UniProtKB/TrEMBL annotation:
Native organism: Zoogloea dura
SUPFAM superfamilies, per the entry: Nucleotide cyclase, PYP-like sensor domain (PAS domain)
Signal peptide residues on this chain, from the entry's feature table: 1-18
Protein name as annotated: PAS domain-containing protein
Keywords: Signal
Length: 605
């Protein structure tokens, strides 16, 4: 108004000057030029009526709501009809929308308010709400981070415009180097990162969510988190997340199936989550990540399927597959289901000798043979293959065939045994028994006479031109006839078995012992001290006549120790004869007969 009056006065003055130059004007013209001056003087110096205006806000400034919102240093906005009519720079800065102020105008107010406070917002904007403290509202920044702010509401007189003013946050989100690196990390991370509020609604997702699921991040925010997962996994997931919020656990790690992938079916992910305190609201949220483990789980399922197929095949095999230890009990670590049909014992009863050890199932007459044969093969790191008898749970004797090998680590350390045992028919068992007797003695574990004679013949022929020494001794046990007459032939046989077991220490890959008549034939071709450790130290040259006599005395002393069988003390005497040099005999049998004759004539006793 003041500017208008000044312009009018200036125009009147210019008009008077122009009329004065033109000559004496009429009085009416001068009166018209003077009217603006008189109006200004009346307004300036005339009486005034004071109109009192009521303040529109608690500060009593009396400024319009728009100017108040625009010039306020605190975040504020004007809402009309549920839409944003104006937002000041302070609010745009806090929300991260400074460069998008034009888009904010006319935007529904619900867009910047967290869904859980939509009802509270509707109540505030209702006609019945008075001006004053409006409580707490959760606003949403452009990056999805929630901002809990206390709001104050002011209404204009006779106006539908409402002013909402918010407390200034203690600190704006950081924008320094650390924050920039954090934003880059979350943006380029290969895993899905997420944040949940107290109601388990999604409040933030990194871009990997859209790359992995094909769903825009904006469409997924403020949606329930649990429906994104398979129905069977929701109970465990809900329980774990609630325990995190309640402080009952520090972290959560679950393998669950998500339904949010690009594929039609569920996809396995590993969910790792931690609790996050929200000081502004006093609530506890959740932050975490989703790791894609679908390929790993599929591989595991394939492996389990292969194992099921393997177990099915093993269970249907006509026999028993095992893995065990190399001890006298043949302790089993794993046994297939075929053990029940073979032995009458379930795998649980045989593993770790729970009900019976496998050694107890082997026929008493075959136990030593099985042990010695397997040990010999293991020493050479060879597979073993043998037949023997077992006694099943019902007391029935059956022949079995076993094949196995020793297991060694990459460093050569022995780890155990693994193999397969199956039932063989009686004819096969009889054939195997006959074949085995050609090579080993069942009762003593010594060499069979045929195998012993074959070795002796080999040494006899080749020693003549090879030049390596060997010795043949014969040990006779007396008084064997008196024992048979007093206690019966069975007792005499048991005496021979016990003496044979004593002589097993002599046997190795080069030296051997076999039963021959009423005594034993001993073949020595390895004269090294470790192979003769069973004899006390003797002459330096063990192959000399003095050395051979020392061995004969040691054998006689070993075999002549008294025995006690079934409570009967039995005194023994052993005589050892040394065979003459190979050049003095026609063949191996003649050499053995000469040694036996020497022993019967009174050899070393």
């Amino acid at each position: 108004m003041t500017l208008y009056l000044v312009a009018t006065l200036l125009a009147s003055a210019l008009a008077c000057l122009a009329l004065g130059e033109a000559g004496p004007p009429a009085s009416v013209v001068w009166a018209v030029c003077a009217l603006p001056a008189m109006a200004w003087a009346g307004l300036r110096f005339g009486p005034r009526t004071q109109v009192q205006s009521r303040p529109l806000g608690p500060d009593g400034t009396g400024r319009p709501l728009t100017q108040f919102a625009q010039h306020s240093g605190q975040p504020a906005l004007l809402a009309e009809g549920g839409r944003i009519a104006h937002a000041n720079q302070a609010l745009l800065k806090v929300l991260g929308l400074e460069s998008r102020s034009d888009e904010v105008l006319g935007m529904p107010l619900d867009n910047i308010v967290h869904p859980k406070h939509h009802r509270r917002l509707a109540a505030l904007l209702g006609a019945g709400t008075a001006s004053g403290d409006a409580g707490v509202l959760t606003l949403l920044r452009a990056d999805g981070v929630p901002w809990l702010a206390r709001a104050s509401l002011f209404r204009g007189d006779r106006s539908t415009v409402t002013l909402l003013q918010f407390d200034t946050p203690d600190a704006l989100p950081a924008s320094g180097p650390d924050s920039q690196w954090g934003n880059r990390l979350s943006h380029f991370a290969g895993e899905i990162l997420f944040a949940l509020d107290n109601q388990l609604l999604v409040t933030w997702l990194n871009p990997q969510w859209e790359r992995a699921t094909g769903r825009p991040v904006a469409d997924s925010l403020f949606q329930p988190f649990l429906p994104l997962f398979h129905l069977e996994d929701r109970n465990a997931l809900t329980k774990g997340l609630r325990q995190l919020q309640a402080g009952e656990r520090d972290s959560l790690s679950l393998e669950v199936r998500t339904l949010a992938g690009r594929a039609l079916g569920p996809r396995w992910v590993e969910l790792r989550a931690w609790a996050l305190d929200l000081p502004a609201s006093g609530e506890t949220g959740i932050v975490g990540m989703l790791l894609d483990i679908d390929q790993r789980r599929r591989n595991e399922e394939a492996l389990r399927a292969q194992r099921r197929s393997l177990h099915t095949m093993l269970d249907n095999l006509p026999g028993m597959i095992y893995r065990g230890q190399n001890d006298k009990h043949w302790t089993m670590e794993f046994v297939s289901e075929g053990s029940f049909e073979l032995t009458g014992y379930t795998p649980l009863e045989l593993v770790d000798n729970q009900s019976a050890s496998f050694a107890d199932l082997i026929h008493p007459e075959d136990r030593d043979f099985v042990w010695n044969y397997v040990q010999m093969r293991l020493t050479r790191r060879e597979r073993y293959e043998l037949s023997y008898r077992i006694v099943d749970r019902d007391g029935q004797t059956r022949w079995v065939w076993e094949q196995g090998r020793g297991i060694h680590s990459s460093r050569g350390e022995f780890l155990g045994l693994e193999g397969f045992i199956t039932d063989v028919d009686s004819s096969r068992g009889a054939q195997e028994e006959a074949r085995r007797r050609l090579f080993f003695d069942n009762a003593t574990g010594l060499l069979g006479f045929s195998l012993f004679l074959d070795r002796l013949q080999h040494l006899f022929v080749h020693s003549a031109f090879a030049g390596y020494p060997f010795a043949l001794l014969h040990l006779s046990v007396t008084p064997l006839e008196e024992i048979a007459a007093t206690h019966g032939p069975a007792m005499a046989e048991r005496v021979m078995v016990e003496v044979g077991k004593r002589l097993r220490v002599v046997q190795n890959d080069c030296n051997g012992v076999a039963r021959h008549g009423n005594g034993f034939a001993i073949l020595v071709s390895d004269f090294r001290p470790p192979s003769l450790a069973w004899a006390s130290p003797g002459p330096a040259d063990a192959a000399s006549p003095e050395g051979l006599q020392h061995l004969a005395d040691a054998l006689a002393g070993m075999a002549g120790k008294p025995l006690r069988i079934d409570g009967h003390p039995i005194a023994l005497q052993a005589r050892v004869g040394i065979a003459p040099a190979p050049g003095q005999c026609s063949d191996a049998r003649a050499m053995l007969a000469a040694a036996a004759l020497t022993a019967s004539d009174g050899g070393a006793a």
